Every structure is written in structure tokens, then in C-alpha cells.
Amino acid sequence: MRQVLFALALAGLLAAPGAAARAQGGAAVTGDWAAVRALAPGAKLVVRMMDGDRLKGVFEHATDEALVITRKGRQQALDRRLVRRVQLDRGKSRAKGALFGAAVGAGAGFGVGGAVYFPHRDDFVDTTVPSATALGAAIGAGIGAALGKGNKNVTIFEQ
């Protein structure tokens, strides 16, 4: 019984920061086109269309009927009825990349450390596996932070 309670408490603690971050994540998602019209020219956008297309561009202006963005040096008008979601492009998340990289690196380090240590248990100090795990996590976190993972886009319109 104690183990079940401990597991539930641990799962709750691990899930709570993610829920709080999603709750504070950004502007409220709304079907109000006025949020799009209020954008400043030059804002980087990610627009998801009703047919599933994902367009990245720079906001120029919006009217009641259309959203105008610049893509690949050319202006493109998007019919409001065909726009499913408009997001501000905030780039990739270095923190997510670092955490993902650390997890992958720790797993790889554990595997390498185990492969080196376990056949020669008497010849190596038992810090080989933890050291290899920590080194793998550090290397993975560095690579993950450099590459980034996921995105930090903020949804301002969705229908």
C-alpha cells in the first residue's frame, strides 16, 4: 500500500509542473480575429490552414477577410475562412532539447558504462557506470540545448 501511495505521489509531483506551465503558457486561445488584426507588422507567424498546410511567414497586416504574410520574399494573402490557427513563432526550446538530450545521453552512458564495467567487475571501481551515465547526460544535454526541441509558439487565434 505504501508503494502505491508513493508511486501516485511521485506521478503527481512529476505532472504538476507541466500542468502549471501549460496553464501559464501564453495568451488565451480564442476565436476572436481581433487578436490577429492587433498584431504589429513584422511579427513572425506560424499559420495552420484548414487543409493541414503549415505556413511560416512575417505578418504584414490583417483585414476582416484575410491575413497577409510575407513568405520567401513574396506577400501572400490567406483567406480568413481557411485559417485554422495563427501562432506567434517563438523559436525552439533549448530547455526541452537539453532535457531530452540529457535523458538520451544518460541512457547511452549507462549502456556504455555497463558494457565496460560488468565484464571486468574486479578490475574497475564501481563508479564506472554512474560516471559514464553522468558524462553521457552532460554531453547529451549540451547537444540537445544546441539543437533545441519542440517550439515555444503562442497561439493567438484558433477556430
Describe this structure in words.
The chain is rod-shaped, with a radius of gyration of 23 Å. The protein has helices at residues 2-24, 34-37, 94-117, 128-147, and strands spanning 44-49, 54-62, 66-71, 74-79, 83-88, 154-158. The longest helix is centred in the middle third of the chain and has 24 residues, at 94-117. The chain has a 6-stranded antiparallel beta sheet. Strand 3 (66-71) and strand 4 form a beta hairpin. It is an alpha+beta fold.
% residues in beta strands? 15-25%
Number of strands: 6
Biggest sheet, in brief?
6 strands, antiparallel
Uncertain runs are: 1-27
Mean pLDDT: 77
Descriptors for this entry?
24% strand; alpha+beta; single chain; rod-shaped; 159 residues; six-stranded antiparallel β-sheet; 45% helix
Offer a concise description of the structure.
45% of the residues lie in helices and 24% in strands. It has 159 residues and is an alpha+beta fold. Strand 1 and strand 2 (54-62) form a beta hairpin.
List strands and helices in order, with pairings:
Blueprint: H1 2-24, H2 34-37, E1 44-49, E2 54-62, E3 66-71, E4 74-79, E5 83-88, H3 94-117, H4 128-147, E6 154-158
Antiparallel strand pairs: 1-2, 1-5, 2-3, 3-4, 5-6
